[in-house]
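Weekly modeling sync, notes
Attendees: AB, CL, MP (scribe)

Item 1: holo prediction request
CL wants a bound-state model with phenylalanine before deciding which constructs to order. AB pointed out that an apo prediction alone won't tell us much about the pocket. Agreed to run with the ligand included and paste results into these notes for async review.

Input as submitted:
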Amino acid sequence: MTEKRENWGSRFGFLMAAAGSAVGLGNIWRFPYLTGENGGGAFIVIYLFCVFLIGLCIMTAEFAVGRRSGLAAVGAYKSYSKNWTFAGALGVLSGFFIMGFYPVVGGWALAYIAKSFTGLLAVPEAIGDVFGAFIGAPAEPLVWMIIYLVINVLIVARGVAGGIEKAGKILMPTLFVLLIFIIFRSVTLPGSSAGLEFLFKPDFSKVNGQTFLAALGQAFFSLSLGMGCMITYGSYLNKEEKLPSNAFIVTAMDTGVALMAGVAMFPAMFAFGMEPAAGPGLVFVVLPTVFAQMGAAGPILSGFFFLLLCIAALTSSVSLLEVVVAYLIDQHKMPRKKAVYISSAIMSVMCILSSLSLGVMSGATFLGVGAFDFFDILTDKIFLAIGGMLLAIFVGWFMKKEDLKDELTNGGTVEFGLFEVWYNITKYVIPVAIAIVAFAGITAIQQKGLMIFGLLIIAVLAVFSKKL
Ligand code: PHE
């Protein structure tokens, strides 16, 4: 099996793919609105702390586990001990569930490219209604979601180097260029400096315990950690690559794009006197409104912006699909194409339910939530956090320290001066920090039935996953 295992074609290709996974809706949609809701600059300072202390260590650990085993999430844990299979299985299930709603939002972004260019978002007052009517419609969002999912299928079916890597190499640089263009327009608007001040002048009086939890949770989601995604990508890395520096570059790029998204949005919002704490509607409602007030260039900029959002989402959902596909290839010897078709077929059914749950099927709930919220809450609030904690415990307390050192220094041929620091943070600090986040996050879930259901899934996996 090992001789046939796929590999990245180049270091740049791997970096673009891994950064592509990290940079997604989390950066461009979620990060700015969380920043807006949590007081701006102070949230950013705490977020940076979480990213570079905890996120970077976990990413380094995921790369090490993946490359050491040469296997994707389930296989990597399983090759150590069958008792750990469930941690990998939980990751695959997380990827599967996130793919139950992420393509729906990806489809919205796709639709908004078309709506921008065709002038449907040109009337500022109507944009809120346009969004509400669009996501609640029975057929239109489904069509866009299916198109979005088909693009994913086409990329992942082509494999690691030919599909995922090639797409990342084209899409990620495009994203940077578009973002810089929009930033330039945003910061040159009259009155935009208030937005920059909001972002970069920390006001710590707004900080409380919840701010830390929001920042740490966001760091995990944004860096694609806690579900075996970076284990899987690490498993395709060749032995010459330096893991710590690659992890640093991916982390820095992800954080850079999040900050850039903030700089692209807040100055424009402040210039037009809009609310920074607008919440999840920020991207699809507030931004088009801002664009619509920019005159003739508005629709074009708006179209570019949603193209950018779509690109970011695409390179992330491709990595989510790959986690599931890699599991089927590694553990069930399934041919790649078949694995892609089967998993995406199931995902499309979940996405149809998710999309309809925001409109015609909003009455149909399970444990108090519709399908969209079901997949979202289970993964974001329960599975990712627990997955991340399990990984830190696995690496810190079960893997051999010498093996980790060997992997992170490429068999002693390259320096990793911070090894001890990394090891101790991963072993002692991270499990405790995540335990606090997970506990606070999970107990704060309002739908208690759903919370218990999520924990039950983990328990069932822990008991039955040895056969996977
Ligand atoms: N990091 C991605 C984003 O920011 C989401 C994601 C999470 C992708 C987990 C893969 C794994 O949108």
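Recorded for review: The longest helix spans residues 298-332.
Action items: CL to compare against the apo run; MP to circulate these notes.
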